[in-house]
Amino acid sequence: MQQGESHEGMLRIGEVCRLTGVSESKLRLYDRENVLTPSVRDPKNGYRYYTAEDVEKLRQILVLRELGMGLEEIRQHLATSGFRQAVIAQIGVLEQQQVRNAQLTGFARAVKLTGLMPEEYASFRDMPTEEGIQAAVSVLDLDQARKANAGQMRFSSVADIEALTETLFALSLMRELDPHEAVAVELIAMFREELDRLKAATLYTFRNMGKCFAADGTFAEDIDKAFGAGTAAFIGKAIAVYCETVQEVPTREEMLLQTE
């Protein structure tokens, strides 16, 4: 900046802090890390002056930080691909984290119920892929399940999908157990509770969903693709065992379906 140049329309660091809620120490950090350098620095007193464009960039940085992106990644993205592409890239990271969290929660559920260590399961290292999980969860709400009278699920939130995925993964870790074992029956009961919360699991519809798992076909193939070979057959058998132990009066519509 040349001596005597006006700072009109620019903001001092304190003003930026009051406007955005960011501390001075954080703004100085962003400056040191070359993530957000003020457009003007007075050579006589070292004061930083920020333009409206600088403040807009700061808001973008805050969004990306909230999404969990590191400063170096933010610096690189904003210097090259831009804010929108940075958000798109971070969505992919967050989706991968979501899948991993579902896997870990499913594993924790299985350990809680069985007390077994990973090496005692069928194949703990055979973690389902993101694509496989999405396919397996999606197929639960598609025509293949409904055509088999398995009921219609209504996912009201991402949490619904995560809960089902976690339970399916926990069941997959037990797929070499006897489906009559108490831990398998207990986890199947949890699975039904989750479906019932989505208005999809009377005993009749749950039994028919079990038939979808047990039958050869695309439904079972997608489940096994996501959670490991043998998972669908195990869940089908475990649902059948569970239904044998539960006594419920069928609805009038279900009684009519059973007579057809």
Give your account of this protein's structure.
There is one protein chain. The protein has helices spanning 13-20, 24-32, 52-66, 71-79, 83-114, 130-139, 143-147, 158-173, 182-197, 203-214, 218-227, 231-245, 252-259, and strands spanning 11-12, 40-41, 48-50. It is mainly α and 260 residues long. It has 2 domains: 11-80, Multidrug-efflux Transporter Regulator, Chain: A, Domain 2 (Orthogonal Bundle); 89-259, no CATH class. A 3-stranded antiparallel sheet has the order 1-3-2. α6 (130-139) runs antiparallel to α11 and α8 (158-173) packs antiparallel against α9 (182-197). The protein is rod-shaped, with a radius of gyration of 27 Å. The termini are far apart. Mean pLDDT is 77; it is low at 120-125, 142-156 and 254-260.
What is the topology?
Elements: E1 11-12, H1 13-20, H2 24-32, E2 40-41, E3 48-50, H3 52-66, H4 71-79, H5 83-114, H6 130-139, H7 143-147, H8 158-173, H9 182-197, H10 203-214, H11 218-227, H12 231-245, H13 252-259
Antiparallel strand pairs: 1-3, 2-3
Helix pairs in contact: 5-8, 6-11, 8-9, 9-12, 10-12
The biggest sheet, with number of strands, parallel, antiparallel or mixed sense and barrel status, is: 3 strands, antiparallel
Number of domains: 2
Report the strand count: 3
Ends: how far apart? 87 Å
Overall mean pLDDT score?
A: 77
Structural class: mainly alpha
Tell me the series of helices and strands, N- to C-terminal. EHHEEHHHHHHHHHHH
Low-confidence stretches at least 5 residues in length (pLDDT < 50)? 120-125, 142-156, 254-260
Number of helices: 13
Amount of beta strand: under 5%
Oligomer: single chain
The coarse silhouette is: rod-shaped
Spatial order of the strands in the main sheet? 1-3-2
Helix content: 55-70%
How many whole angstroms does the radius of gyration measure?
Answer: 27 Å
